[in-house]
Design brief:
The two termini are 40 Å apart. Helices cover 33% and strands 25% of the residues. β17, α13 (330-340) and β18 (345-350) form a beta-alpha-beta unit. The chain has helices at residues 21-31, 50-57, 68-71, 76-82, 93-100, 107-114, 127-131, 133-144, 170-180, 215-226, 254-264, 307-312, 330-340, 396-422; strands at 8-13, 35-40, 62-63, 85-91, 118-123, 148-149, 153-156, 162-166, 190-195, 200-201, 207-208, 230-235, 247-250, 270-273, 280-282, 301-303, 319-326, 345-350, 370-379, 382-395. It folds into 2 domains: 8-180, Rossmann fold, CATH 3.40.50.1950; 190-422, Rossmann fold. The strands form 5 sheets. The protein has an 8-stranded mixed β-sheet with strand order 13-12-9-14-17-18-19-20, sandwiched between helices. It is of the alpha/beta class. The chain contains 14 helices and 20 strands.
């Protein structure tokens, strides 16, 4: 799977002759399957016109004092949430200095400060400017702030001199950017992720289902694969592209999901139940379509097996992560589910109603690209207190990446504690 497929990438372009290479970077990112937005500084627009990048990206270009920010409906905070990664290429000495010291005096620097996305910069400047002690200190400061530095390269420069300071070649920038998405924190581990709804048949054409879109589970599966895991995604009916994973199993009913889980559980290290599994199914499914002949129709429902409880009590029990999509008492219900079903971690989210539009925040939960998560977990070293973490509203792909990092950390703590207890 191409790591950049489906990723939301913001390219920040600063002033410098190397800005023309950003046009090729835009094109190459799109060819790799990324969705690209462009943010330019005022100085950058003097080297290459915004119209060039609008034509290449197919979207309005963002820069200071232009009305595209209003026309597109994507202000800097929205753009900050939208991005999976921000790459500044070329990054001038001036912009590097601003970011190193937390200045936010234009759209690009404000965007960077407001975003929790992966952040990268590819320096491009005269060799003497690059060698200057202040520039070197500023670059190290950004790296200490978890920025990724790409380059620079060495060779002939536009000023006529030769030395270090050239923008890295576009193909090399793409390679480095792909690496940023691959954390390796789950390298070699086997994961099962369940996602989407289940459909419980009433007759050959009707069913009982729920509103789950599968977006969160699919995002978690992709993030786990990027982290180095061998992922099996077991999915109910979803209107999402089939991800390029090691193992994808499409199911329809809760019984089919249960069987698929049990068929793959033996070598599973981490089980993440993000699916919205139907609690009940119709006891007697009609062989033929039920005709509308009566004013009332009574369906007898029987309870489905609780898949996650079965996994939590399995002989080869993996680390078990459950989800709690709640419409009320979110925290209390999630904690209760964590204990009652003997889980290691529970991920709670509120799916009751869309947020008030006056807050300018996106809708969260089912059928949305955004979510907010409240996570609780058992701490092996402290049986009295639950671990707790809250992830604010962000795109599900970003939340999935954060969640996978947290799961990997807690899995390793549990594994270490178990080894000490059995030593």
């Amino acid at each position: 799977m191409n790591t950049l497929t489906g990723k939301h990438i913001v390219i920040g372009i600063t002033g410098g002759i190397a800005a023309y290479k950003s046009a090729d970077l835009t094109r190459r990112l799109q060819e790799a399957g990324a969705d690209v937005r462009i943010v330019m500084t005022g100085a950058a627009t003097e080297f290459v016109t915004p119209l060039t990048f609008q034509a290449l990206s197919g979207h309005p270009v963002f820069f200071d004092n232009n009305d595209a920010n209003e026309a597109s409906g994507m202000k800097h905070i929205e753009l900050a949430r939208w991005a999976d990664a921000i790459i500044i290429a070329p990054a001038s000495a001036n912009t590097i200095a601003k970011l190193a010291h937390g200045r936010a005096d234009n759209l690009l620097t404000t965007l960077c400060l407001a975003s929790e996305a992966i952040k990268c910069f590819a320096p491009a400047m005269n060799r003497v400017m690059w060698d200057d002690q202040s520039t070197q200190i500023n670059c190290r400061t950004l790296i200490d702030k978890d920025w990724y530095q790409f380059g620079p390269a060495s060779g002939p420069q536009a000023c006529g001199e030769t030395g270090e300071g050239r923008l890295l070649e576009v193909s090399e920038i793409l390679t480095e950017l792909e690496r940023c998405f691959r954390s390796g924190v789950l390298q070699g581990l086997n994961l099962i992720v369940t996602a989407g709804p289940t459909y419980e048949a009433i007759d050959p054409v009707r069913f009982i289902g729920n509103r789950s879109s599968g977006r969160m589970g699919y995002a978690i599966a992709s993030a786990a694969q990027e982290a180095g895991a061998n992922v099996t995604l077991i999915s109910g009916p979803c209107h999402l592209p089939t991800p390029a994973l090691q193992n994808f199993i499409a199911i329809e009913s809760a019984e089919e999901m249960q069987q698929a889980v049990l068929d793959n559980i033996e070598k599973c290290h981490i089980y993440i139940s993000a699916a919205a599994v139907s609690d009940y199914r119709v006891e007697n499914v009609a062989i033929q379509k039920i005709k509308k002949t009566e004013d009332d129709l009574t369906l007898q429902l029987i309870k489905n097996d609780d898949i996650i409880s079965i996994v939590a009590s399995h002989a080869s029990r993996p680390y078990v992560v459950g989800f709690a999509a709640e419409t009320e008492n979110v925290t209390e219900n999630a904690k209760d589910k964590l204990v009652r079903k003997n889980l290691d971690m529970i991920v709670a989210n509120d799916v009751s109603t869309p947020l008030d539009t006056s807050t300018k925040q996106p809708d969260i939960g089912f059928n949305s690209e955004y979510n907010a998560l409240h996570i609780f977990w058992n701490q092996p070293s402290d049986n009295e207190t639950l671990g707790e973490r809250h992830f604010d509203i962000a795109r599900k792909s970003q939340l999935a990446k954060q969640l996978i990092s947290l799961i990997a950390k807690q899995y390793n703590i549990n594994k270490k504690q178990h080894a000490q207890n059995t030593a």
